[in-house]
Amino acid sequence: MKLWYEKGAWATRKARETAASMSPESVRSIAVIRHAAIGDMMVMRPFLIQAREFFPNAAITLSIVNNYAYGAPEDLVDRVHVVHKKKEGKKTSYGERLKDVKALGEHDIIFDMADTSLSGIICLMSKARLKIGFPYRTIKNSLFYDIGILRSDLVPEVETLLHMLYILGAPKKQALDYGYPSYETDREHPYIVYFTTASLGWKCWPQERFADLIARSVAAYPNVEHVVLEGIRDYEKVDALMESLRGYPNVRKVDPMPLEELMPFLGKAQMVVSGDTGIRNMTIAAGTPTVGIFFFTVPYRYLPIDERHRAVFNAEGREPEVEKVLWYMDKLLRG
Q1: Same-domain pairing of 120 and 202
Q2: Among 153, 215, 222, 263, which one is most buried in terms of CB atoms within 10 A?
Q3: What is the DSSP letter of 296?
Q4: Chain segment 293-312, per-residue pLDDT in tens
Q5: The domain containing residue 253 runs over which residues?
Q6: 149 SS3 class
Q7: Is residue 3 part of a domain?
């Protein structure tokens, strides 16, 4: 394999020589390190699907941490390697974690898609012919990797992860494949989904703005059901929001549901409106249009180049106005 770059990546001379001695067909085992929540797991799915195609004879191992196991794409890999940070509610010892790290074993290629202290240790302690990472700090390239991909908050991360394959010669696809069925929008009982919270409080658009948005949406789209999806944590409860909207008969709450039910539910919606959260990334993977509300986190990192998805934000970083969110919703719904 040739390393396909000029100045937009980093590699050692040894990496060039090693890659030249390999072919995609000769690769028998790859490991992918991803220590992240479900939204980031969704972003990784196109990489795993193309890795399976590009390395047709390779077994794929996914390395995760047990506190971020929910939503791990087990359907796309052959083995899941777990580093336990806690067991039975107690922090594991360094010895226990070291034992877990060593269990990853030897591979032809390791892809580090975590860029954490733990993933760096895993790379250092694991044998591989090639180790590929995408650290923000380029000094980490020579410490942990043979090949380093440039990483930017201004490029969709789903694309950045695929760059790890492109540098080895994998073909670039025109459409992202997340490995989910092509869900048909429910035309008989159309609905829009709103998810009002996020993993961190400072990423949440105010509840009163969501209440105003939903009330205006009801007036604009009276023949559509407006569904508020509740989260699993205590701070994600929407009782107060629903109380403020109790005068609207076509607004209802939906309780949290298992992943196997949630994906079709999102996939059949006309649209999902949310902040920077895993639900939005899941919706993108399900193929449903999204309107994402951003004001603190960078919108470009999770905004695929796809007209079905819009990010609403102000250049100054202020919280987007309700009118602006509603305008983007209308633009998508009317095509």
Answers
A1: no
A2: 263
A3: S
A4: 999 899 999 998 889 999 99
A5: 191-333
A6: strand
A7: no
